[in-house]
Amino acid sequence: MQDATRLLIHESASVLEALTQLDQTRKKALIVVDDRQRLKGTVVDGDLRRGFMKGLTIKDAVALVMNNDPTFITEQMSEKEANQLLSNKFKIIPVVAPDNRVIGYYSYKQVHENENVKNKRVTILGMGYVGLTLGALMADSGFNVCGFDTNERMVEQLWQKKPPFYEEGLDRYLNLVVGNRLKFTTSINEARADVYIITVGTPLVSEEKLPNLEYIRAAVASIGSILEKGDLVILRSTVPVGCSRDVVLPAMEKASGLKAGEDFMLAVAPERTAEGVALKELEHNPQIVGALDQRSFETTSRLFHTFTPTVIDVESLEAAELCKLIDNSFRDHLFSFANQVARLTELLGLDLNNLIRAVNYGYSRNEIPVPSPGVGGPCLSKDPYILGNVFEQNGLDSSMIFKARKINEAGPQLIKEKLYARLNELNKDPLTAKISLIGMAFKGHPETSDLRESTSVWLLNALESKEHVCAYDPIVDAAELTALGVKAVGLEEAFRNADAVVVLNNHKSYLKWDLSKLLALMNKPAVFIDTWHLFNPMVLKREKGIVFGGLGNA
To answer: On the CB side of 354, how many CA atoms lie within 13 Å of its CA?
Structure first.
């Protein structure tokens, strides 16, 4: 299903307005709606021509010549069912909600062009979480895909169908497509294609908190060395607003000797999937696209429509860049609100988790999240800084954005202070006590093995000694935990003789624990801190010899 915004025209609009809109959208049909965007009809260029032959003027209302009994489908119908209705006669079919509002459309041209777009060769630069999942899905969808990465060890591992990280379902995809429609290389000359998708990282430079664009520049230089006329370049990495036009475009033109918009196409299609469910979300999440020109958008749209139901045209490169920053910065700000209020409720002796459940219940305007041990991960810890810098570059106040980030970054330090205070209450030295950290990946649900910018790692590094610290994670490989400077242990070993256990992410397997049995293994009196409110505090407070600690409660 495609976004219908640009094809909607009011029933009172004139024929001249319809002609103008058809010309601007380069479409052959429009969807006629009323004030509430309810479907009234459709009009194609042939309707207008026939109207002129009958004496219609350009000032007349388009409703006079529209088809007021159009074929349409409901949102419950599948894409396959919609495609069966499309024909050269029915060039577009509106999709309507139960109240008859137009919420999208399917296009005859789109369906038939999608059949041909799979003939294009695709190269994805960067085989990390974003690039590898996209490449596996596109190969499974019928594309011939080449994954390019400069990491030779990773490429060798991928040829062996061994993913370098955990992602649900990725093993199955790799077993199906590697060596068939998905190959890997470290040589850009072996990666020649018709479509190049840049998915390399843009990590922050530590002190300045600015994104490092060197990986982007390297990818652009590589593509530019083999770019040919008619090729499409898609930027999927998270970048500052203006990067695609001011950095990528001129560098690509210089490296290739070709002209953007004339010789090659350029678009921005920001990655918007969550680790742990990336493969599922690639098939279901709407894909935002901002392109240099209409040709670039249409080709990019056809590409994504082969596996994604909805493509949204935001009409410029800069708009697409900003969409990604808005997405993650908003979520970071939302979480910071809960984490800030948690400090207040702890002082007041109230349980914020219970309060949030109360104010959210049956109240559709509220989706307040529960407090968490800070907000980490490679996206939410980075994107607000990029957005804040964009604000400052445009002379605008960025304090709200940066303040939210600082609140979330402070979470691990607050947990450390709570942990040390609880141990001191028991006359246990935090430097010699056995402390077990549970859940080292930056999130537990959806599950991932990603340790990048994990608040659990931040807490570990904040501890004054790692000598007596153990770590358990149901997904992260033990070798990666050992590399952090701690002892990797199993679940029971983490609890056995522990003076303190701190639950740091929300992996669903924790809910299956026999918690009383595990707590009995601890060196009592002992500390148990649940930073995700996974367990009932009242039950924990009744456990003999256990001093409980949580977030947002006393």
So the answer is: 12
